[in-house]
Design goal:
Blueprint lengths: L8 H11 L8 H14 L3 E7 L3 E8 L5 E3 L4 H5 L6 E3 L12 H4 L6 E9 L2 E10 L7 H39 L1
Antiparallel strand pairs: 1-2, 1-6, 2-3, 4-5, 5-6
Length: 178
Protein backbone atom coordinates (compact mmCIF):
# COMPACT_ATOMS: atom_id res chain seq x y z
CA UNK A 1 0.00 0.00 0.00
CA UNK A 2 1.44 3.38 -1.03
CA UNK A 3 1.96 5.80 1.85
CA UNK A 4 -0.23 8.89 2.19
CA UNK A 5 1.44 12.26 1.74
CA UNK A 6 1.90 14.30 4.91
CA UNK A 7 -0.41 17.34 5.14
CA UNK A 8 2.60 19.66 5.09
CA UNK A 9 4.29 17.97 2.10
CA UNK A 10 5.43 21.14 0.28
CA UNK A 11 6.85 22.69 3.47
CA UNK A 12 8.47 19.37 4.38
CA UNK A 13 10.17 19.11 0.98
CA UNK A 14 11.34 22.72 1.24
CA UNK A 15 12.86 21.94 4.63
CA UNK A 16 14.56 18.82 3.24
CA UNK A 17 16.09 20.74 0.35
CA UNK A 18 17.30 23.50 2.69
CA UNK A 19 19.52 20.95 4.44
CA UNK A 20 21.44 20.32 1.21
CA UNK A 21 21.84 16.68 2.23
CA UNK A 22 20.39 14.82 -0.78
CA UNK A 23 22.88 13.09 -3.08
CA UNK A 24 25.87 14.00 -0.90
CA UNK A 25 28.81 11.67 -0.25
CA UNK A 26 28.99 9.49 2.87
CA UNK A 27 29.78 11.27 6.13
CA UNK A 28 31.26 9.66 9.21
CA UNK A 29 28.76 11.13 11.65
CA UNK A 30 25.80 9.52 9.90
CA UNK A 31 27.67 6.26 9.33
CA UNK A 32 28.47 6.08 13.06
CA UNK A 33 24.79 6.54 13.93
CA UNK A 34 23.72 3.62 11.72
CA UNK A 35 26.50 1.47 13.13
CA UNK A 36 25.51 2.36 16.68
CA UNK A 37 21.85 1.59 15.97
CA UNK A 38 22.70 -1.81 14.48
CA UNK A 39 24.84 -2.71 17.51
CA UNK A 40 22.47 -1.37 20.18
CA UNK A 41 19.40 -3.07 18.73
CA UNK A 42 21.28 -6.15 17.46
CA UNK A 43 19.77 -5.90 13.97
CA UNK A 44 21.36 -6.64 10.60
CA UNK A 45 20.15 -3.41 8.91
CA UNK A 46 20.06 0.25 9.88
CA UNK A 47 19.55 3.40 7.80
CA UNK A 48 19.55 7.16 7.94
CA UNK A 49 17.27 8.01 5.05
CA UNK A 50 15.52 11.02 3.61
CA UNK A 51 12.19 10.95 1.83
CA UNK A 52 12.17 13.17 -1.25
CA UNK A 53 9.24 13.78 -3.61
CA UNK A 54 9.49 10.43 -5.42
CA UNK A 55 12.19 8.47 -3.63
CA UNK A 56 13.74 7.46 -0.37
CA UNK A 57 17.42 8.41 -0.50
CA UNK A 58 19.76 6.64 1.90
CA UNK A 59 22.51 8.77 3.42
CA UNK A 60 24.04 6.02 5.56
CA UNK A 61 23.37 2.31 5.96
CA UNK A 62 24.50 -0.90 7.56
CA UNK A 63 23.56 -4.33 6.21
CA UNK A 64 22.30 -3.33 2.78
CA UNK A 65 23.77 -1.78 -0.33
CA UNK A 66 20.54 0.01 -1.29
CA UNK A 67 21.15 3.72 -1.88
CA UNK A 68 17.61 4.65 -2.79
CA UNK A 69 14.18 3.15 -3.32
CA UNK A 70 10.95 4.36 -4.78
CA UNK A 71 8.94 6.31 -2.23
CA UNK A 72 5.96 4.07 -3.02
CA UNK A 73 7.60 1.05 -1.38
CA UNK A 74 9.61 2.79 1.36
CA UNK A 75 8.60 1.95 4.92
CA UNK A 76 10.15 5.30 5.87
CA UNK A 77 7.59 7.13 3.72
CA UNK A 78 4.94 5.80 6.13
CA UNK A 79 7.04 6.74 9.16
CA UNK A 80 7.43 10.42 8.18
CA UNK A 81 3.64 10.83 8.34
CA UNK A 82 3.74 10.12 12.08
CA UNK A 83 4.98 12.04 15.10
CA UNK A 84 6.17 8.88 16.81
CA UNK A 85 8.21 5.80 15.95
CA UNK A 86 6.57 3.49 13.43
CA UNK A 87 6.98 -0.11 14.56
CA UNK A 88 6.09 -3.05 12.33
CA UNK A 89 6.73 -6.21 14.40
CA UNK A 90 6.07 -8.57 11.46
CA UNK A 91 5.69 -7.05 8.01
CA UNK A 92 4.26 -10.28 6.59
CA UNK A 93 1.31 -9.95 9.00
CA UNK A 94 0.71 -6.23 8.29
CA UNK A 95 -1.75 -5.38 5.48
CA UNK A 96 0.23 -2.23 4.54
CA UNK A 97 3.49 -4.13 4.01
CA UNK A 98 2.82 -7.84 3.40
CA UNK A 99 3.01 -7.50 -0.40
CA UNK A 100 5.84 -4.94 -0.38
CA UNK A 101 8.75 -6.04 -2.63
CA UNK A 102 11.19 -5.29 0.23
CA UNK A 103 9.29 -7.92 2.24
CA UNK A 104 8.53 -10.48 -0.47
CA UNK A 105 12.01 -10.18 -2.03
CA UNK A 106 15.42 -8.93 -0.99
CA UNK A 107 16.26 -7.85 1.65
CA UNK A 108 13.33 -9.79 3.20
CA UNK A 109 12.27 -7.24 5.81
CA UNK A 110 10.13 -8.70 8.58
CA UNK A 111 10.68 -6.17 11.39
CA UNK A 112 10.91 -2.39 10.94
CA UNK A 113 11.15 0.49 13.41
CA UNK A 114 11.65 4.03 12.12
CA UNK A 115 11.88 7.27 14.09
CA UNK A 116 11.05 10.40 12.08
CA UNK A 117 13.64 13.13 11.65
CA UNK A 118 11.62 16.06 12.95
CA UNK A 119 12.78 19.28 11.31
CA UNK A 120 11.02 22.61 11.85
CA UNK A 121 9.35 22.23 8.43
CA UNK A 122 8.21 18.65 8.93
CA UNK A 123 9.56 15.13 9.08
CA UNK A 124 12.27 14.85 6.42
CA UNK A 125 13.37 11.25 6.89
CA UNK A 126 14.07 8.58 9.47
CA UNK A 127 16.58 6.67 11.47
CA UNK A 128 15.37 3.12 11.08
CA UNK A 129 16.32 -0.41 11.94
CA UNK A 130 15.22 -3.59 10.21
CA UNK A 131 15.49 -7.31 10.72
CA UNK A 132 14.76 -10.39 8.66
CA UNK A 133 12.95 -11.89 11.66
CA UNK A 134 9.83 -10.62 13.43
CA UNK A 135 10.51 -9.07 16.83
CA UNK A 136 9.02 -7.06 19.67
CA UNK A 137 10.11 -3.50 20.44
CA UNK A 138 9.72 -2.07 23.94
CA UNK A 139 9.30 1.46 25.29
CA UNK A 140 12.99 1.83 26.19
CA UNK A 141 13.97 0.87 22.63
CA UNK A 142 11.50 3.42 21.24
CA UNK A 143 13.11 6.15 23.33
CA UNK A 144 16.61 5.15 22.22
CA UNK A 145 15.61 5.24 18.54
CA UNK A 146 13.95 8.65 19.05
CA UNK A 147 17.16 9.92 20.66
CA UNK A 148 19.20 8.76 17.66
CA UNK A 149 16.78 10.59 15.34
CA UNK A 150 17.22 13.78 17.39
CA UNK A 151 21.00 13.45 17.07
CA UNK A 152 20.63 13.20 13.27
CA UNK A 153 18.49 16.36 13.21
CA UNK A 154 21.06 18.16 15.38
CA UNK A 155 23.74 17.09 12.88
CA UNK A 156 21.63 18.40 9.99
CA UNK A 157 21.15 21.74 11.75
CA UNK A 158 24.89 21.92 12.47
CA UNK A 159 25.70 21.19 8.79
CA UNK A 160 23.30 23.93 7.67
CA UNK A 161 24.71 26.49 10.14
CA UNK A 162 28.26 25.63 9.09
CA UNK A 163 27.37 26.07 5.42
CA UNK A 164 25.73 29.44 6.15
CA UNK A 165 28.86 30.59 7.98
CA UNK A 166 31.06 29.48 5.07
CA UNK A 167 28.86 31.41 2.63
CA UNK A 168 28.99 34.53 4.81
CA UNK A 169 32.77 34.23 5.14
CA UNK A 170 33.17 33.93 1.37
CA UNK A 171 30.95 36.99 0.91
CA UNK A 172 33.12 38.93 3.38
CA UNK A 173 36.32 37.78 1.68
CA UNK A 174 35.11 38.69 -1.78
CA UNK A 175 34.08 42.14 -0.51
CA UNK A 176 37.57 42.76 0.91
CA UNK A 177 39.38 41.80 -2.31
CA UNK A 178 37.17 43.90 -4.57
Amino acid sequence: MAPALPENESKRLESLRAYGILDTPPEGSFERITGLAARVFVVPMSLVSFVDKDRQWIKACIGTDMRETSRDIAFCAHAIALDEVLVVPDATANARFSDNPLVTGAPGIRFYAGAPLKSPGGNVGTVCIMDTKPRAFGRSALTTLEDLAEIVVEQLEFRRATQQLRTELETLRSGQTG
